[in-house]
Design brief:
BirA Bifunctional Protein, domain 2, about 350 residues, alpha+beta, single chain, binds 3,4-dihydroxyphenylalanine
Length: about 350
Amino acid sequence: MGIAEELSALRSKALAAVEMADSLDTLESVRIAYLGKKGSLTAVLRGLGALSAEERPVVGQLSNEVRATVEAALADKRRSLQATARASRIAAEVVDVTLPGRVRMPGKSHVIHQVVDEIVETFVGLGYQVAEGPEVELDYYNFTALNHPPDHPARALQDTFYVRDLSGERAVVEGESDVLLRTHTSPVQVHIMETQKPPIYVLAPGKVFRRDVADPSHLPQFTQIEGLVVDEGITFGDLKGTLEHFVKRMFGEDRRVRLRPHFFPFTEPSAEVDVSCGICGGEGCRSCGGEGWLEILGCGMVDPKVFGHVGIDPERYTGFAFGMGAERIAALKYGIPDLRLFIEGDTRFLHQF
Ligand code: DAH
């Protein structure tokens, strides 16, 4: 085969190889194989020296044409492979702007925590400190030091959770005081007065436990917030003014406060506090049971007998205390008819707050 035939065979092979190339990398190896310094074209042209002077320019021109044709085919193929690569990259990156967005459901504070925080903030604004006491408590702190007589009904088994030891007997500390789950936050008053000297301005939120079956208005575990003030010259008027400030901050400036005489073993005198109904404004309606008023807390002046247990001089100091249930406050604030909603963990309910 003469050089001219070799050249045209090379051209057909090269063009076929270009046509077959399915990637830019393959295409580059085709280029190197045929047109590269050590490629087939160079190899064929090595035979040029053996040709006659007349044949040489003819074959030279033919080889230039072959090179130009193959280069043009390479360039065409390169463009088309680049276009295909770009199109598939764009297809892979496509964003469907008509899809709905991703919904994020961030966690949040439970409504009872929010209400406790709001109450705490109100009293911290009045200069109160926040304190906590144990949830597992001694009878002494929960009852005796708070002036409950030994046969007080709250001490009965059907009202209080008593802690049992491993033998199943009621747990007793130091041979005398039963161990129980505190039934109210009032024992924190005793812990505070045992360890701090007046002036005392303290708020104590925490869990309390009672042997109640959960129903719309009772929970076996709920949250109380206890307040205690002990200072020189504290009067019932200070208690009333403090509670009025609290009620208006919590429920609104238009709400009124009413104190009704009541009895608690650890305060004397004692009162229950009502807030005027937010729906009828005190007229009486279905939501306040026709009363016009809703009970929100218990309070009173610290009984001198309680001061006696903690060594505070009742001749020098007086004080007031109050206690409220956070679930009840939240239910009244938001119009929630059943306290069990607070503990069921249904996010459709909880996400509304
Ligand atoms: N501890 C009482 C209860 O659980 C509430 C209470 C009433 C607390 C009067 C007080 C108070 O501090 O002075 O029912």
